[in-house]
Every structure is written in structure tokens, then in C-alpha cells.
Amino acid sequence: MDAVHVDDDLINVLFTEKQIQDRLAEMAATIRDDYAGKDLLLVGVLRGAVMVMADLSRHLARHLEMDWMAVSSYGSGTKSSGVVRILKDLDTDISGRHVLIVDEIIDTGLTLSWLVSNLASRNPASVRIATLLRKPEAVRMDVDVTYVGWDIPNEFVVGYGLDYNERYRNLRDIGTLAPHVYGG
Question: What is the layout of strands, in order, in the sheet containing 126-134?
């Protein structure tokens, strides 16, 4: 399927659907090896991680459990506010469990740093992070990320779960959002 561009809202496509699936399969192979013989719980960060979590879990091809958290440090804009709040907590007790947080993107690291600290306080066996994208230039809080799909420039990207004002999440590719859309 061709890339879906919405009224010239994307400047360019960074990663196609095929590239994304290939990279998730590579990440899944490493994760499978790292967690061989261990009970694995994937914790997806809503809403953006839905696509990544679904596809990564299918590539893992092993028994696992999934749960979801919704945390927010974004308003309706393009910059992180740094204020984190839990909108939906886990339904699962993670005490003694191997937890892999799955996210779609890490930019400032503020939200994820807070989330790792919060989950670590619940006595899991381990807490690691898998993300499809990371923006090293935007990092304000160092976060130990075990599995990274790609490092990308500090540009505003959408598609494959990434949004701007809740739009563009359903695009199959990931692309750079045109500044005229968000006034950048």
C-alpha cells in the first residue's frame, strides 16, 4: 500500500510500513533471546504505543501477557509539559514480574523516566524499555532504553500511533509533519 499523505500534511516519509515491520521483527528476535525462560509482561503506554505493542507482540511469537498504562505529559501541542499524571493504571500486579515497557517514541525522556521509577517501586523482577523511535537531541532526562528501533532527528513525526492533536495515528508509515499544520 502506498504512503497515505493527508492534504500535504507530511513533508516526507521516514519509515515505511515494511521498514517498521522488519525492524520490529529484529527487535522481537533480540527480546525473545533476552527473555528466554522468563515470564514476560509487556506494558504498553497508551495511546501511541498501540500499533507498536500489537505488532511487536505478534513478532515475539511466544507466551506473554499485556497490560496498558495511560500517562500524560503532553497537552495538545508539540512539546512535553514535563508534568506527568496517570490516566489509566495497570490492572496487573507486577511484583516479581519481568516488565517490558513498550512505547512508540522517546523525546524528552521525562515521562518515561517517571514511569520507570513508578513501576520500579512496585517490586518487579526487572523493568526494561522498548521503543520504536528515540530523539537523542531532545532528551532532557537520561533514560536507559534497552531496545530502540531507530534514533531520529528532533522533528515532529506522525503515523503508526504517533499523533498531532489525536490525528494521523492510523497512517501506516511514519513521516515528518509539515510545520504549516502545527504552526512550527
Answer: 80-88, 65-74, 40-46, 98-106, 126-134, 147-151
